[in-house]
Amino acid sequence: MNADLIRQLIETGLPGARAEVRGEDGVHFEATVICPAFAGKLPLARHRMVYATLGDRMGGEIHALQLRTLTPEEAGV
Question: Which is a Gene Ontology cellular component entry for this protein (predicted)?
Answer without folding.
Answer: cytosol
